[in-house]
Automatic annotation (TrEMBL):
The gene is USP48. Keywords: Cytoplasm, Hydrolase, Nucleus, Protease, Repeat, Thiol protease, Ubl conjugation pathway. SUPFAM superfamilies: Cysteine proteinases (SSF54001), DUSP-like (SSF143791), Ubiquitin-like (SSF54236). Belongs to the peptidase C19 family. This is Ubiquitin carboxyl-terminal hydrolase 48. It comes from Oncorhynchus tshawytscha (Chinook salmon).
Amino acid sequence: MAPRVQLEKAAWRWVESVRPEDIQREHIEIAYRICVPACKRGACRRNCKGNPNCLVGIGEHAWLGEIDENTFHNIDDPNSERRDKNTFVGLTNLGATCYVNTFLQVWFHNLELRRTLYLCQNARAEEHNMDSDYEPRSICEHLQYLFALLQNSNRRYIDPSGLVKALGLDTGQQQDAQEFSKLFLSLLEDTLSKQKNPNLHNVIQQQFCGQMSYVTVCNQCGRASPLPSRFYELELNIQGHKNLTECVTEFLKEEKLDGDNRYFCESCQSKQNAARRIKLHSLPRVLNLQLMRFVFDRQTGHKKKLNTFISFPEQLDMGPFLEEKGIKCVYELSAVLIHRGVSAYSGHYIAHVRDARTSDWYKFNDEEIEKMEGKKLQLGIEEDIAETVKSQTRKPKCSKGYHCSRNAYMLVYKCQREEDTDPMETNVEVPGFLGRLVDRDNRKFEEWCLEMADMRKQSVDKGKAKHEEVKELYELLPAEDEYEFVPLEWLKKWLDDSTVTKEIDNGNFLCSHGKLHPDKVGEAKRISVKAAELLFDKYGGGPRLDGKSSTLCEECVGQRCRVLRLKNQLAEDYKEVTNLVKCPPKSDEGYWAGKTSLRSWRQLALEQLEEDEEETKHSNGKTNGEGPEITATKENLDGDEEEMKTFNEDILCRHGGLSILESERRLVTEEVWSKLRVYFPKAPQFTQLQEPCQQCLRLEREGKENEALNRMMASEQKSSLLNLFQEKNRPTLTKWPQETDILYIVPLFFVDEWRRFIRRPTKTTPVSSVGNSLLLCPHRGFMFTFDSMLKGDHFSGLYHPSLLVSCCVVFPLHSIALLWPDEWEVISRHFLVDQPISICRISGATPNGSSVEYTTQPELCRDCREGFIFQQQRDMREYAQATVYVRKVIDDKRLKDAAPEMNVSGSEAEDEREEPVAKVDGERDPDFSQVGYKPPTPMASGGKSGIRRSTRHRKLRGEKALIVSANQTLKELKIQIMHAFSVAPFDQNLSIDGRCLTDDSATLGSLGVIPESVICLKVRTLPILDLCMPEEGFKGKDIF
């Protein structure tokens, strides 16, 4: 079948030879493509949307022929969720909890720990009514129930969300796995120590706790100072090492203490050179070895993963490392925890665990459990994941009994004991109260399996019935002499078994005349009346669109014919009008046309035709003439003119009459105008005898008179207030003028608006009033004292009790102007003043000499003043999303001034240019500013005239803006600074106004950090090294 565009052209090719008034039934049927041949099956790979008779490729192939019953449902076999025989149970990954799942599987396979947890008292579970679901509360209860399910559940995997929620872990954020292990064992140890059974108190210590001591020996006197300590795991540095023995050896290596790191010897009573080492005294039954793969890189300020290959044995002899020699201490590898991925910030955790009963190795990957062949540990696929690292390091060959990994981050060894082979020791029974809970869960699982199987059967039966229906109806679909239209999308959904079949909706296919729109034929299909009757009887809907004359719209076809014919004729008419417009019209027979309209009439006509054509297109189901809203193409024909939407709009005044501007119009002949009217039948028409708009003429005369009055008014006011206009001889509060005891106050906003009017009286509106009420509180009292004005009380605004939330009308105090008394008299005569405001100086004599007091009229409102100060102070301590500036500094160097950064907006740069800035003298390092810089002191209100002081913070080189909140802690701010400056938190010395900020747990509000504060960052200088360091902090709120 021909492409859709070709079908569209063929449907309207007849318009070239047929006028709108000559349209016949055959032309309408061609426009609706009634006679386009139907496609045959196999001829089209997909449905022909331009052909209403094509019924191929709408989804019928899925129903014609034999169908597999599995296609009638999307329900997986419930038996696939069943636990396989002689396998373990997996754990669901809740988003980013794979690290939790790995440790839970390792601890579950610690039989002594599992047996101990089963012995914990759980009165709630023992007394639980089996008619309701059991919901554990404490961590111990959750772990008990989880281990029981892992042991005896019929499910292939279980959901650990109850335990994860009880621990307060964020399921969407991957935490530090090593820190989780430490904190969880500490929490479990504390829980078991509170059990009534004394045999449970020390289980964690017996399983995981070893004894060691830090021994420091003075080189001067030889005195040894041991410091005993317990450990639950050994943290081994792997950088620069190849095998586990080297890592343990370095852990126990002697460390020299000299220089600034000398040791204070109590015998010598002075600092002496010394040697310090770790001595291992006893080892636990389960030895956890943490391989420190995640380290902090000072150079980048971020963590990184060390992808170093480390070799480790299946049997580890720790006897040579113990302080007491001759003790047999052989361990057997029982688990390897793997981190897949090359980055410290992403990846996936899995665990390889050896079954204590059978010695088989299993890989635990969340829900998936895989048994290794031949009772051997196999790490090959985990090592392939890391091959994307840009490293030439090849995997070293391993001897028999050894394994090598670049992704292992924790090794778990279990001490070999004779009793471990005892069947009684390897058999752990689930207590009866937990067994009943597990049996109840298994019954629920079996019920779910039966329910899913029944749903599958129902879906299959429904699908078979639909199959028979489709096979019968599809044969009846091809149209005959009598036909109807139905939506193509509805037919597709009817043939798509995955969606619910709704009623047939033809409403979107209607034109504004309530008939089938010609443009919607490609989205509808022509089917037989018999098939339509069956479909509408079963599914309902409407309106019915049959093939009669009442359905095919003759009006839309005629309108489209007219538009297409005019578009074809436009080029010829354009040439003819261009030639005719050169001839002047005869006397009194011309028509006015806009010059801009004449220059662009071809483009306007094309847009008008496209708009008319758009009106004949689909109207989104609206009838009764409610067509779609048309938006013209936005092209400015002239840079200073607004967009023209219709012809002659440029000579139409705002009153709807002829424009008074003769330079914008010209006369054209009647012949030219008649041709233009064909394309613009609704364009404004003005004959040569038409008079211009009388209202515009009157307004033009009045405007000229008003401009003359404004110029006269501005000249008079300027001569009366010349010093105020030129900012000369201005009074100030810092040095009160001797010639007067009273000054008047007005908003600087009023003065600025007045000066703008004086400069351009014909372009701006005259100022008529002085709005002094902005400077008053709701009680009509003044808001500020003389001292606060003298000091420059630069608060963010004036306090109004009625605006407690927004706290003010933004009107800074430095935005007032002082007036002489004679200037105030002039202001009072020329302007309407809502409330005079004055400040008076009162001199008097006292026993100690003369005194001067200052009062304001209206008087100060003390209640509002106090409320204003309180509100401002509270806002400074209770803010959110405020900006502070962090400035990096260096000791013992000073900068006279610093240049502002150039990445400011245009308005900011303009404000800054109005204030002189000193040039940089000193260090030129763009990453640093220097200690000792003091910003210029802002001038008091009414200072030196002619200088405008910017209130914006001037950002310096080496300074960065951060968004903070008052309830944010100092530690969180240091982390922001680390990302901005690549400086680790422990290398940051922060201060503000000379005060050091040291309490990491304190909030910024309590530390006095307010919006726009400048915080100095002094970096502790240390050599750049890769150090093993603690993580940012574990995010589990309830695990501490």
